[in-house]
Amino acid sequence: xxxxPIRRFYQNPSIRELIRPLGQIISFSAASSVVLSLLILxxxxxxxxxxxxxxxxxxxxxxxxxxxxxxxxxxLIDGITLGFVYAAIALGYTMVYGVLEFINFxxxxxxxIGAFVGVEVLIAMNNAGVFTGISLWAxxxxxxIAILVGMVAAGGTAVLMEIVAYRPLxxxxxxxxxxSAIGVSFFLQxxxxxxxxxxxxxxxxxxxTFGNFDKRLLISNFDIAGTTLxxxxxxxxxxxxxxxxxxxxxxxxxxxxxxxxTAIRAVAQDRASASLMGINIxxxxxxxxxxxxxxxxxxxxxxxxKFTRIDPFVGFFPGLKAFTxxxxxxxxxxxxxLLGGLVLGLLETFAGSYLYIFTMGAAGAEYKDxxxxxxxxxxxxxxxxxxxxxxxxxxA
Amino acid sequence: xxxIKSGKASASSIVNNFLNQGKRPYFxxxxxxxxxxxxxxxxxxxxxxxxxxxxxxxxxxxxxMHGGFKLAITAVALLIIVPIIGIRNIFYLEVIFQxxxxxxxxxxxxxxxxxxxxxDLGYVAFYAVGAYLWAFFGSQxxxxxxxIPGTAPSGTPFFLPADMFYLFAFLGIVVAxxxxxxxxxxxxxxxxxxxxxxxxxxxxxxxxLANNLDKPLNITNGPQGITPIQRPTLPEGLLNxxxxxxxxxxxxxxxxxxxxNLFFYLLALxxxxxxxxxxxxLDDSKIGRALTAIREDETAAVSMGIPxxxxxxxxxxxxxxxxxxxGVMFAANRTFVSPESFSFMQSIGVLTxxxxxxxxxxxxxxxxxxxVIILNLQVLQGLSxxxxxxxxxxxxxxxxxxxxxxxxTQLDPAKYQRMLFGIILILMMIYRPAGLIPAARRKxxxxxxxxxxxxxxxxxxxxAEADHGAA
Amino acid sequence: xxxxxxxxxxxxxxxxxxxxxxxxxxxxxxxxxxxxxGGQSAIGVDIKNGAELALEQLKAPLExxxxxxxxxxxxxxxxxxxxxxxxxxxxxxxxxxxxxxxYNSGVQIPSxxxxxxxxLANVSPANTNPKVTDRGYAEVSRIVGRDDVQGVVAAQFVHxxxxxxxxxxxxxxxxxxxxxxxxxxEAKKLGxxxxxxxxxxxxxxxxxxxxxxxAAKSDVIFFGGxxxxxxxxFKQAREKGYKGMFISDDGYDSPEAVSIGGPALxxxxxxxxxxxxxPAKLYPGTAKxxxxxxxxxxxxxxxxxxxxxxxxxxxxxxIEEAAKAAGNKLPARKDVAAAVRKLKDFNGITGKIxxxxxxxxxxxxxxxxxVISPDPAKWNDNKIDKTLDIAPPK
Lengths: 396, 471, 394
Known about the structure:
The complex is a heterotrimer. Chain B is mainly alpha-helical.
C-alpha cells in the first residue's frame, strides 16, 4: 500500500535525480573506506612479525596492529573529507572536459580565487567586528554567505576566462587551448598575488577563527586491545562533507533534470548536431564554465575553512590531484569524478599517515604526492577510460 | 608606380632593397657590430648598449649576405667580442651563458613539442637528472651516504677526479635519454593532453625525489643541496698564456673564477652548435618527416607505416639528452645543486621560450630563449632597481602628483615573472600561434593554404576545417 | 617582408640614440639581498628597510669624504637561482662595495661563492646555517648565531623543562632541516626519546603527517621552519587533540604566528621559540631605532630588522676604514672585506660586535622565548625565558 506512493515519489525525475547521487555517495564512501581499511590492516598483520613491530613498540609504545587500528578512524574521516574537496574540484575539470574535450588547466586558480574571495569577505567581517560574540546560527550564516560569494567570484572568473582566452581558440588543435590554459593559470596566480600583496604586503591569508568550526564532535569512546579509542570529528569536517554532498546533489539535478542540463549533455555528445537542433552552443559552454567554476570556488572556501591557510599557489596540487581524480573516475563522467575524488583522497591520506610508520621513518608523508601521480600513470596505462568511464574513441 | 599605390608596405620594401643593395649589408652589419662592441666596451654597466650589441645578432641574421660572411662575423662576435665584453662585465657573460643553456633546453623541448607535437610539461626533470648525475659523482656525496644532511664532516675527499666531468657530460646524454625512454615507454600511448599532465607529474616526482632522497641513504642531500661540485681543471700554463692575452684587453687582472665563467660559456657554445646541427639534421631526416606526419595526423601516419611508438620515443630521448648534458654543465658551473632549481616553473619557462620563438623553428627557439632570459634577468630586475632608485629620491610622478616614495614595493616587476609567462603564452596562442619566427615548414603550409582560400588562416578556421573533417 | 624591414629600421634608429655615459666616479653602493617577494617577504622587506635606515642615518662620514652613497636592493625571492643571478649582477657593478644579505641560508651559500671570488664583503643579518661561515671565506661574516648552537639551545631547554620525548619536524629547506637535525642530535644525546623526524613541504593540509605525530603522544613537538607553516601545523595538531609543548626556531618569530594559530596554541604545554635575534627592545640602544623605524615605515620593526640595520652599519664602517686607509679614495673590495673583519668592539644596536677568524661572532646571543598572548599586537611583550651568550663551536 505504502510502497506505491513511494515508488511514484521516486519515479518523479526531479526527485530521483536529487536522491540518486546520495545513495552513490554513501555507497562509494563506505565501500572505498572498508576496502582500504581491510587492506591496511592486512599490511599491518603482515608486518607484525617484522622489525616494524619493534619500531612501533619502541617509538609508540604499542604494537603495530593496535597502532594501525587506533589511527584508523581519524585517517578515514580525514581521507573522506579530503576526498570530497577533490571531488568538488574534479567536477569542474570533468564538466569542461565532457563538453569541450579540453583540460582546463586554470581550474586550480579558479579554486584559489574562490578561496581568496571567500576568506577576504570573512576577514573584512572579522575586522569590522561582526564576529565578536555572535550566535552559532549567525556564524554558520556568515560562512554560507562567504561560500556563496566565493562561488560567484570563481564562476564569474571562469566565464570571463572562457570568453577571453578559450573561445578564440575553440576547435584549434588540441594543444593550443591547453597551452593558453597554462598561460591563464600562471597569469591568475600572479594576479592574485599582486592584488593580495598590494593591500597588506603579504599574500597568504588566514581563515579567521569564529564559530565552533574548530571544535570536535565526540561520537563515541570504545576500548580496543586495552587502549581507548576516541571517535570524534571536527565540525569543519562535517561542514565540508555536507556542503560537498549538497553541491553534488544539486549539480546532478541540474545536469540530469533541467533543460539547460539536457542541452549541455547534448553539446557534449555532438556539438554540430546540437547546434543544428537550435541549442546555443556558446551559452551552454558558458554555463558549463559557470557551474564548474562555482563548484571550484566553493571547494576553495571549504578548503580554506578546513586547512586555515591559503596562498596564490594553493590550487596547484589540489587541482592536479582533482584532475587525477577525474581521470581515475573516468573523465567526463560526473559520478566518476565523485568516486575518483573519494578514492584518491582516502588513498593519499592512508599513504601519508601510515607510510612513515610502516617504513620505520625511511619514507614519510612527502611521498603521498608521488603516489597520486603513480596512480594517474597506472590508470592511464591500464584503463584510460577510468573506473566508470566508457571506452570512447578519440575525437579529432 | 605600383610601389606608390600600395603605400606603406612598398615603402618598407624600398628600405629593404636599399639596405640590401650591393655591398651595403656587409658594411652595415660590420659597423653595427663594431659600434655595439665599442659602446659596451666603454659603458660596461649600461644596459642599453648591451642590448644594442645583442641586437646585432638579429641584424646579422636578417640582412641578406653571403652565408660564409655571416658565419665569419658570427664567429668573431661569439669567440672574440663576447669573451672580452663578458669578462669586463661578468654579469653579461652570465646572461649569455644562461641564454645558451636555456636555448639548448628549448631546442631539446622543441624536438618533443615542435617536431613530434607531444606537450612535455616536466621537461626540467631531465635537466635535473643530468645535474644530479654529476652532482653525485663529482662531489664527496659518495662518501657521505650514511651521513645526516648538514652534519657531514669537512675534509672528505672527492670521489672522482675533476676531469671525469667530460665523461659525465657524455654520460649525462645517455642517462637522460634512457630516463626519457623509461618514462616514454608507458606514457607515449596517451593522447596529447593526458601526456601533458603525466609529464607534469613526472617532473614533480623527480623534484620530490631529489628533495627526499636524503634518507634512508643520503643520495641527494635533500633540500640542503649538494656542494661543492668539482669543475674540470684548467691547465695552469693555458691560464697564464690566456692572462697575457686577456689582461690588457679587459683592462685589469682576470681572476680564475672569471676564466671558469668563460670556459663554461665556450663549452655551452660548443654544445649548442652540436645541438643545432643534430636538430637540423633530424628535421630534414626521415625521422623528422615521420615526426611531422605524426604531429599532423597520427592515424594517417600509422596507416602509412610509420612506427608510432618508436618515433615518439626517439623524439623523447633526443629532447631529454640535450637537457641531460646541460644539467651536467649546470651542476659544474654552479658547484651547487638543490631541488629548488628544478621546479615546474622552470619547465614552463622553457615552454614559453619555445612558444614565443616559434614551435619547430630553430632560430625562433633561440630567439625565444634570449628574450625570456633577458626579460627575466635584466629587464624586470633592472626596472625594479630603477623603481627603487626612484623611491629613494624625492621625485614625484607628474600630472597625478604621486611621490615615487609611496609606491608599493609589491609593484616591482621582478616579482611578476609568472604573470609575464602567462601573458606571453595566452597572447601567442591567440594571435601568433606559430611564434615570432615561424618554422619554415609551417610557413610554407600556411602561405600556400592562404593563397587557395584567399583569407588569412587563423587557428579557429583551421580548426573548423579539422572539426569538419572529423565529423 | 614589411615587418622585417621595419625591425631593421627600428634597430638603426636605436643606434642613433646617443647612449649616455653614467657618471660613476665617487659613487658607493651597498647592495641588499633578501626576499622582497614571496612568502618570506615580510621579514625580507624589513631587513632591507633596516639597512636602508642605517644607510640614511650613518652615511654622513662617507659623504664628507666626497662619496655618494646609495642602496641597491635586490630581491632573491628566497630562491637560490635568483640569488646567484643577482650576485653576478652585484659583482659586476664595481661601485658596489659590500652586500648585506640573505635571509635564507640555502640562498646565501651558493650566492656567496660569487662574493668570495670577487672579494666582495658580505655581512649576513640572518643566516644561521653552519656552512655559511664554516667554508672560511674571508669575505663572509654574520652577526647572528648558528643553527648548530640554536638547535642545541632548544634541545637543552626542553630537556631542562623535564621533557622526555620529542617529535621533530621541519619544512624541507636547508634552514629548517639544518636546525631540526641539530635539535634531534642534542636531544638524543641528552637521553630524550626522539619519536620521529620528518620533513614536509605541505603548507596547509597536515592531516596525513599528523597521524603518526598524534599517535606518538610526545611531550614536545619541535618544528624547524618558518612561522606561516609552523603555526598552521601547530594549530592543526591542537585541533587533533595534542596537549604537549610546541617549540620552534627564529623563523617562528613573527606576530602573525599567533594570528594564524589562535589562542589554542598557548594551551597545554605552551608555545616557545628560540631565536638569535631577540625582540628589538632587548638590545641596548634600540629605543631610538624602534621610534625611527616606526616613523619611517609606519610599523614596528620585525625580527632581523635591527640585524639588517647593524649589518649595514658594519659595512659602512668597514668602507669608511678602508677608504681612510686608501687616502680618502674609493677603496678596493678586498680592503673593505678585510676592514669589516678587523672591526673591534663595534657598537651596534644589537650589542658589541667582534668577528672571529671564520666570520662568526665571538660571542652570540641566543634567546628562548615563551609566547604569552594570542594578541599579535603584544608579540613584542613575549616572555624571555632564557638568554644565553655562547661562543661558536670550534
